[in-house]
Amino acid sequence: MTKTVLVSGASGFIGSHVAARLVEEGYRVRAMTRRPRDYHGAGEPVEADVSDPGTLAAAFAGVDVAYYLIHSLGSDDFEQRDADAARTFAKAAGVAGVERIIYLGGLGANDGELSAHLRSRREVETILKAGPVPVTVLRAAVVIGHGGISWEMTRQLADRLPAMVTPRWVRTRTQPIALTDAVRYLVGVLEPAEARGRTYEIGGPEVLRYVDMLQRVAKIRGSRLPNLTVPLLTPRLSSAWLKFVTDVDSATARNLVDSMTTEVVVHDDAITRLVPGPPVGYDEAVRLALADRERAARHDRAQAVR
């Protein structure tokens, strides 16, 4: 029997692509959104808000599996908001008798050194797991794809700077993953029974420093990006600098920069055996993201002419 799947955050960066992939594979998709009249993505829009528990019962009715793809990174009180939202979602899923929740969290060793952003992702994971519904967790670092905040920040820095004077955190190692692979893994864990209650780490085939990522984007764009690392540039000063150079808002920039001091790499590749397939390399992921951006720009120009 065809499963009914609820995708929270269906109008967001990851959620919109997950919803589209699920529809392509024949699932009945409920796209959870606060503004269903404005929703134009895949699936059937259903109005619900994790900050309003009374709206969730109708959204969860008849749902087999629910994706939790919500994060309030752009608010100063995001840790509390995310914790409250996760409790509300887990409770509603339990009342509705949902078979499983699938959650996308963040990589990083839980050694007391996690940033507020990554600590919040891990707390949401813990809260969801404490609920009555089995949870499958996927942990990722930077997802490379058009519309992603971390990727957009990287692209804008590579495009707009003739050279970089950077803090030490640009030498932190990370394992970026292509949007196509992140979605492939998220959808790939839906059916396998062995994925119930499991946590998987997902990443691309390369471990890179943030400075490597920036310089390779610049090279793909046909330019160079010389770098001078200055130890005195603190995360707070870095986030203020990012606000001037990129379009990322101050709160989001600050929270992202705090996370960039933490190494986020895959230590367990079990997901590659559950959901096999060759991962997309970083350079190809960048090219795909740039191509999607150009397609979106052409579409917007065509709409403006009309």
From TrEMBL:
This is NADH-binding protein. Residues 9-142 form the NAD(P)-binding domain. InterPro entries: ComplexI_NDUFA9_subunit (IPR051207), NAD(P)-bd_dom (IPR016040), NAD(P)-bd_dom_sf (IPR036291). One of its GO terms (molecular function) is protein-containing complex binding. It comes from Virgisporangium aurantiacum. It comes from the Bacteria.
